[in-house]
């Protein structure tokens, strides 16, 4: 109530001052209050031969000029008597008629009061939409004092009541603005603030006391102005200091607006008006001009407060706006119902208490849901989010359930909690090693998360162990006590624990070693997290912990699958190498020995002894058969054409051999006769697929015709084997074929998957079978490394 009374009193004083000053008559000239010399003269001049700039006035209405304001409080139509010193050096009495002021004259007179209103508006906005923290209280008092100084100074300048108030406020304005800037935009150490406030307010009290006791009568004018100059100068020094020593680039950008606004507003007033007026009783720059710079002060401060939240207003803006809108909606609804009843049935609700009661009950019942909906809309507009925590929990749960990797989960958790709880910032630390953290943050309105900027990814071992033993949300004050209680903490850990932006620490635990910690910043608008908020946070953190465990389990499963694929690939590679070695051994040893044995049998067959020749002929036929079988085995183990002539030649060779052995026709289609830059793994895999497909047709299909197609594109190679055999039912998963001891197609599918290929089988009983294998022409780096 006291704050409202002060604001109302200042506003009434300003309005009264505007009315009084604008009603005063226009004299047409002004003079120096120190010397009485005329320094400005308007046209038309009533005494052009006598009144000129530089003429000295001795008295006004019989009062010495030093004791009279520049414009005595008279109205239009009255006259004023002046005693001046004429050109002859003699005193001369003049009677000057007074006229109505022009619009420009009125505007020039009320200029200080208009500027005063900007200070008043800023202070009232801060008062109405803040929680009256020390910054808000001091800003309100300083702006109100500045407004009162401008108004009372203007009143005293025109001879209206206000001089005593003006003189008193000149002593107190300086300490107030210094006290404000000891807290704004950033607070100084408490000991420094107490020492300065004691000195400043003590000096103001002593000065105003001596002034009231008229002990400074000879120099009171100079003392007041010098005291105000000193206060405003210290204010500028504090602003520059806040800018120079801002902790971050973002903080410096925020303070820059305030510092520049203060310098532009106050520096011209000090240098060109207040200081010259205090020293020589004559400003270099008229106050009407230097006051114009003051308008930048409330504008800059107001912009900085709203843009950078230097004083939190959002919570109160949204709350006040919500109630105002609800009131307007319900009032409009009442007026609508009233008009409807009166227009349709000619009923006046006030004449029928029961009708009025029903309308009141309807509006009362509508208040709660209407307030809730309006509050959600206002919060969404102000914060970009809402405060419906049931929906928030559902949304966070759904977002976490869709996430399968820990970095994305951490980012999602931070952003969703920051939005739902309307926080300035949120930061999640996840351990990715025995002594290191990975840091994930939400979207910080300042651009860079102020908490994350304090975090190092290493050197967090002690605090990590301590947090693992804690449960539930931990206040920042407790964490600071921990920092003081654990001397073995590293410098990095102490810096994080003392971070001014961190308000709440929530450890995350699970059944596997996934302990992390969620660090939350201040709530937007300077609000606090109540018990309900904390309970909801605990639920969200528990869900996040379980989701985090799932991501670790999924990551571990994927790692095991990759290891299995790598081992399988190595087994296949080792098998192919072993096939190659066996084929080489058979070719270099067994086949060569069989060839030599065949030569010896040929010589024995040429013997003149008939029985031995007949027996040798039989043996030679058997050796040739064995030699052909061994060569076939060598070809199956490792086709030599694949290494020497390439994939297409090896395929053609295999098809010719199969056509000789099998009872079906084979047609081969290929859109190229040569393949360049095809990896050995891809060529071998394609050949093995063809080999297995032909074997399956030979064993099971009873086909009469097979069509083999090899298609080449810049990105992939495609093999299609189509037969007209008996076909079969293709299971939904090829793995089900292993239940019937059919492993060939399953092995093909696994072999293709290892090289990022695919296997597609289309078959219907009695309609034949189509086997289609696709492989990329180039292997990825991971496949090459693993292979």
CATH architecture of the largest domain: Up-down Bundle
- The total beta strand count reads 16
Residue share in helices? 55-70%
Task: Please identify the structural class as seen in this structure.
Answer: alpha+beta
> How would a textbook summarize the main sheet?
5 strands, antiparallel
Q: Using only CA atoms, what is the Rg?
A: 48 Å
Distinct helical segment count: 23
Shape, principal axes of CA atoms: elongated
Span between termini? 80 Å
Q: How many distinct folded domains?
A: 4
The name of the CATH topology of the largest domain is: Rhopdopsin 7-helix transmembrane proteins
Instruction: Enumerate the spans where pLDDT stays under 50 for 5 or more consecutive residues.
Output: 780-787
Mean pLDDT level? 78
Strand residues, percent: 5-15%
List the helices and strands and how they pair.
Blueprint: H1 2-23, E1 29-31, E2 38-41, E3 57-60, E4 63-64, E5 79-85, E6 91-97, H2 103-128, H3 134-157, H4 163-183, H5 190-212, H6 220-244, H7 249-280, H8 287-293, H9 296-308, H10 314-345, H11 353-383, H12 389-401, H13 406-421, E7 426-433, E8 436-441, H14 461-468, E9 474-475, H15 476-485, H16 491-497, E10 504-508, E11 516-520, H17 531-605, H18 610-637, H19 640-644, H20 647-661, E12 665-670, H21 680-701, E13 705-712, E14 716-723, H22 744-754, E15 758-763, E16 769-776, H23 781-786
Parallel strand pairs: 12-13
Antiparallel strand pairs: 1-2, 3-4, 3-5, 5-6, 7-8, 7-11, 9-10, 10-11, 13-14, 14-16, 15-16
Helix pairs in contact: 1-2, 1-3, 2-3, 3-4, 4-5, 4-6, 6-7, 7-8, 7-9, 10-11, 12-13, 12-17, 13-17, 17-18, 20-21, 21-22
């Amino acid at each position: 109530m006291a704050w409202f009374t002060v604001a109302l009193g200042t506003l009434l004083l300003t309005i009264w001052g505007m009315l009084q000053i604008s009603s005063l008559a226009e004299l047409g000239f002004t003079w120096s209050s120190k010397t009485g010399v005329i320094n400005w003269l308007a046209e038309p001049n009533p005494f052009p031969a006598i009144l000129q700039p530089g003429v000295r006035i001795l008295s006004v209405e019989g009062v010495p000029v030093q004791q009279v304001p520049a414009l005595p409080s008279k109205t239009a139509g009255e006259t004023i008597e002046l005693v001046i010193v004429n050109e002859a050096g003699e005193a001369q009495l003049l009677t000057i008629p007074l006229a109505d002021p022009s619009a420009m004259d009125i505007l020039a007179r009320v200029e200080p009061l208009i500027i005063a209103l900007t200070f008043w508006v800023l202070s009232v906005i801060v008062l109405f939409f803040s929680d009256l923290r020390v910054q808000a209280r001091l800003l309100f008092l300083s702006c109100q004092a500045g407004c009162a100084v401008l108004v009372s100074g203007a009143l005293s300048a025109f001879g209206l009541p206000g001089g005593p108030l003006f003189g008193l406020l000149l002593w107190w304005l300086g300490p107030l603005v210094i006290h404000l800037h000891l807290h704004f935009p950033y607070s100084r150490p408490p000991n420094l603030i107490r020492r300065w406030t004691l000195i400043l307010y003590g000096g103001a009290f002593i000065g105003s006391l001596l002034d009231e006791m008229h002990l400074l009568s000879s120099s009171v004018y100079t003392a007041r102005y010098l005291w105000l100059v000193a206060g405003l100068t210290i204010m500028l020094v504090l602003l520059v200091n806040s800018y120079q020593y801002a902790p971050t680039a973002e903080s410096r950008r925020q303070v820059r607006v305030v510092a520049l606004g203060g310098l532009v507003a106050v520096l011209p007033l000090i240098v060109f008006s207040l200081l010259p007026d205090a020293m020589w009783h004559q400003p270099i720059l008229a106050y009407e001009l230097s006051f114009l710079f003051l308008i930048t002060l409330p504008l800059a401060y107001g912009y900085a407060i709203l843009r950078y939240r230097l004083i939190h207003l959002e919570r109160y803006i949204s709350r006040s706006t919500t109630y105002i809108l609800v009131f307007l909606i319900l009032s409009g609804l009442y007026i609508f119902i009233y008009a409807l009843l009166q227009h349709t049935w000619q009923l006046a609700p006030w004449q029928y208490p029961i009708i009025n009661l029903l309308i009141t009950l309807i509006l009362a019942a509508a208040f709660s849901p209407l307030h809730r909906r309006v509050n959600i809309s206002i919060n969404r507009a102000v914060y970009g989010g809402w405060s419906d925590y049931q929906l928030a929990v559902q949304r966070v749960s759904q977002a976490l359930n869709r996430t399968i990797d820990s970095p994305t989960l951490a980012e999602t958790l931070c952003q969703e909690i920051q939005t739902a709880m309307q926080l300035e910032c949120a930061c999640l630390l996840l351990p990715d090693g025995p002594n290191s953290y990975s840091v994930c943050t939400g979207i910080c309105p300042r651009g860079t998360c102020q908490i994350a900027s304090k975090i190092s990814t290493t050197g967090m071992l002690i605090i990590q162990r301590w947090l693992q033993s804690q449960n539930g949300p931990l206040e920042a004050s407790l964490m600071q006590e921990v920092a003081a209680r654990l001397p073995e903490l590293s410098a990095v850990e102490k810096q994080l624990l003392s971070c001014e932006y961190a308000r709440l620490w929530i450890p995350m635990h699970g059944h596997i070693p996934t302990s992390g910690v969620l660090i939350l910043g201040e709530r937007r608008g300077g609000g606090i997290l109540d018990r309900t908020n904390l309970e909801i946070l605990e639920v969200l953190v528990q869900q996040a912990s379980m989701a985090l465990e799932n991501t670790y389990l999924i990551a571990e499963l994927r790692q095991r699958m990759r290891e299995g694929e790598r081992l399988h690939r190595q087994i296949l590679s080792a098998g192919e190498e072993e096939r190659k070695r066996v084929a080489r051994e058979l070719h270099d040893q067994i086949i060569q020995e069989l060839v030599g044995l065949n030569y010896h049998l040929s010589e024995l067959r040429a013997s003149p002894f008939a029985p031995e020749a007949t027996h040798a002929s039989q043996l030679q036929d058997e050796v040739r058969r064995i030699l052909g079988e061994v060569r076939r085995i060598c070809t199956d183990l490792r086709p030599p054409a694949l290494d020497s002539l390439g994939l297409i030649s090896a395929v053609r060779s295999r098809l010719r051999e199969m056509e000789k052995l099998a009872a079906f026709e084979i047609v081969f289609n290929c859109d190229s006769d040569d393949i360049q830059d095809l990896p050995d793994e891809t060529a071998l895999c394609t050949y093995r697929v063809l080999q297995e497909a032909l074997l399956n047709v030979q064993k099971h299909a009873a086909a009469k015709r097979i069509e083999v197609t090899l298609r080449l594109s810049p990105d992939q190679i495609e093999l299609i084997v189509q037969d007209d055999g008996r076909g079969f039912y293709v299971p939904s998963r090829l793995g089900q074929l292993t239940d019937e001891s059919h492993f060939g197609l399953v092995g093909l599918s696994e072999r293709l998957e290892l090289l990022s290929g695919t296997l597609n089988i289309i078959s219907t009983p009695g309609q034949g079978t189509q086997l289609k294998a696709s492989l990329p022409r180039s292997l990825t780096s991971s496949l090459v490394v693993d292979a």
